[in-house]
Amino acid sequence: MIEGTCDARFAGLRDAFASNFAPGLDIGAAVAVYANGKLVADLWGGHADAARKKPWTGDTLVNVWSSTKGVMALAVAMLVERGKLTYHRPIAEVWPEFAANGKETIPLDLALSHQAGLNGLSVPMSFEQVYLWTPYVDALAAMAPLWTPGSRFVYHALTYGHLAGEPLRRVYGDGVGAYIAREIAGPLDTPFYVGLPESLHARVAELIEGPQASDWLTDVRASPYPHSADNPAPLALLPNQRAWRAAEIPGGNGHGTARSLAAIYGAMVDGSDRLLGKAALAEAIRPRFDGVDAISGDPTCFAAGFCLKDATYGNRASKRTFGHGGWGGAMAFGDPDAGIGFAYVMNHMLGFDGVDPRRKVLVDAVYDALGA
Prior knowledge:
It is built from 13 helices and 14 strands.
């Protein structure tokens, strides 16, 4: 049973969302859309646990994996607009220890667009150390690049969040979680957390690993650039542990709802300048890399942390559409020309050779409703 509300013109989105449950693609999920600053669709359904005993509700939180990266890209963009950070200047200017081993000229731009040569660590690291923050960022600061910065695109799956987060911490004086709470989630009065309070753990959906969800790890480990997947190795169900939820891992442990992610992207594109001015947004979504992923060989286009030209956006999204997907299926994006913020979150992690069909039918239904 699908619950929630949507404007009449988005009835097709409700139908599309329901269609994902019938063949068992979704177990628990939510989808939301903001259009020109108004919440026009807020739908959820299914179960928040593998045993299918706990209903998914409008307040169910879920780990959205790399969709967290888009929120981090916004956090950095806000500090760039305020003159606290600079995309084209070396990271070492605000994080002096980062200058070690030939990294003194690497700018923030390269790190945010997965071109810094730091897609993993060159020393062993456990997740227990990652949870503590300092051991991980200290190791990043001390290491030499794994390959020539700027020479290619290799997805920085885990390191991205710390390469963005430590400069943020240096200029803000507090952690990533505090920044997001005070500067993004708080002003929008919407729940999104990097570092989940223990009091909210009962609201979190259990992730469920489905077919092909981890196939991409095999491909990465077989490539010449394996560090993004095996140091330390992520596991699909790791976010079900309290230690993961409580830590600050801004490359992949954001917890929120579809409504919260849609609100964040909606606020960036509704013309209100509540989070980011128009000029700052234009600079944040300017392409930094447009080429081929060195591991998959697929076309890839990235701005300052935001993914551009993603196949999920479809052919009807504007060329300025930006966002970020998450492992297993989550997706959030903003389309400035259409004035919409879209988000889909779920707990049934799946993998597909092409575009996730769950996301495709939802995005198609949104643009059908818009008449695009």
